[in-house]
Automatic annotation (TrEMBL):
It is a multi-pass membrane protein. This is Sugar phosphate transporter domain-containing protein. The keyword Transcription does not apply. Keywords: Membrane, Transmembrane, Transmembrane helix. It comes from the Eukaryota. Its main location: membrane.
Length: 434
């Protein structure tokens, strides 16, 4: 390329030297032509150099173009080496875009929790269902029999003769424990009172509930636990009577026939009870009829789906209402019982533990009722209730050593047999109705 350019230059010089006789104007024109030709030759040489550079670069690396080569001269851009695509091993919940090693990409997903853990029942994950049910049933027996024995000990043996105040403590305890169990432990969903009408219905149930519990506690001052439980076993008889009088509900002839031994047995037990007390007997009958009336009225008042409350929510509302109902009665009938209790506690601190323990066990009666129904059925709770009276009677005889007679035990047994027959007749009647 350089030789061709030199040859072209020499030719131009020879040409300019061959015509020396031209005038000044022609000389200027010739000089301009020479400059133009020289400029064209310089541009041609520059283009040849660029072409040679492009050809050399293309042969060395086929990727960059001349413009890319120029930009590479201006900017130093690092070219990362290509790496082999990684094979990600991921699971649900992991993010493969995270800057971590391949070993860290595998996340350990915990196993699906069991039913007990999902329901916040960690005890259920430790104990088997059968063992858990057995523990609940034993707790139910312990609380139901325990509150009877503690009430009897406080009111009759220890000498704490304030059954209304004791019942008010039970109601306050149920209110506090129910609030904690529903709002903090969340054992059941919280339900609100939706209307004033529903409020007054619950208030009416609270009044009946007060009458039943207070009457039962008063009867324990005068009657032994065994006889108290024998009278309490006649609840189905009063339930059938109130259901007929209030709701005009008629049972099958088999159901009414099963109630005959219930009444006959309590008559035998009453005639042969060595520690029979008329006032205590009448008050205990009132307590039993109050329980039956409450069950009938509750089914009558809280009938709509919107007004129905869970048993634990119903206790949450009934307990403080019952305490307010009992407050004026305990102040009027039992006097300044709070000051008397404080004075007793100064001389004997054991009374404080007795009252707190008694009130706590009273709440456990309601809690275990709910747990037994949840883990078994309402029918199982009814059967356990029938057996509870007999167990409580035997335990009380062993602890308090109250005298019994063969006729009294026979009457109690006849009553219990009638209760079992009544339960079976009710179950068959419901099965035939469906």
């Amino acid at each position: 390329m350089e030789e061709e350019a030199a040859e072209a230059t020499r030719s131009a010089e020879a040409t300019s030297g061959a015509e020396p006789t031209r005038g000044g104007g022609d000389d200027q024109s010739s000089d301009g032509d020479d400059q133009s030709r020289a400029a064209r030759q310089r541009r041609r040489r520059r283009g040849d150099r660029l072409s040679a550079t492009t050809t050399t670069t293309t042969t060395a690396s086929p990727s960059p173009s001349p413009s890319v080569s120029l930009s590479r001269l201006c900017f130093s851009v690092p070219i990362l080496p290509m790496v082999e695509a990684q094979s990600w091993t991921t699971r649900r919940g992991s993010n493969p875009r995270l800057d971590s090693s391949a070993a860290d990409q595998v996340l350990d997903i915990p196993a699906t929790p069991t039913d007990g853990v999902r329901n916040n029942s960690h005890i259920g994950s430790i104990l088997s269902p059968n063992i858990l049910t057995a523990v609940i049933v034993l707790s139910w027996y312990f609380s139901n029999i325990g509150v009877l024995l503690l009430n009897k000990y406080l009111l009759s043996i220890y000498g704490y003769k304030y059954p209304i105040f004791l019942t008010m403590l039970h109601m306050l305890s149920c209110a506090v424990y129910s609030f904690a169990a529903i709002n903090w432990l969340e054992i059941v969903p919280f339900q609100q009172i939706l209307s004033r009408r529903q409020f007054f219905k619950i208030f009416a149930l609270s009044a009946i509930f007060c009458f039943s519990v207070v009457s039962g506690n008063i009867s324990l001052r005068y009657l032994p636990v065994s006889f108290n439980q024998a009278i309490g076993s006649t609840t189905p008889f009063f339930t059938a009577i109130f259901a007929f009088l209030i709701t005009f509900k008629k049972e099958s002839p088999q159901v009414y026939l099963a109630l005959v031994p219930v009444v006959f047995g309590i008559v035998l037990a009453s005639n042969s009870e060595p520690l029979f007390h008329l006032f205590g007997f009448l008050v205990c009958i009132g307590s039993t009829s109050g329980r039956a009336l409450k069950s009938v009225v509750q089914g009558l008042l809280l009938t709509s789906e919107a007004e129905k409350l869970h048993s634990m929510n119903l206790l949450l509302y009934m307990a403080p209402m019952a305490a307010l109902i009992l407050l004026p009665f305990t102040l009027y009938i039992e006097g300044n019982v709070l000051a008397i209790t404080i004075e007793k506690s100064r001389n004997d601190s054991f009374i404080v533990f007795l009252l707190i323990g008694n009130a706590t066990v009273a709440y456990l009666v309601n809690l275990t009722n709910f747990l037994v129904t949840k883990h078994t059925s309402a029918l199982t709770l009814q059967v356990l209730g029938n057996a509870k009276a007999a167990v409580a009677a035997v335990v009380s005889i062993l602890i308090f050593r109250n005298p019994v007679t063969v006729m009294g035990m026979t009457g109690f047994g006849v009553t219990m047999m009638g209760v079992v027959l009544y339960s079976e007749a009710k179950k068959r009647s419901k099965a035939m109705a469906h």
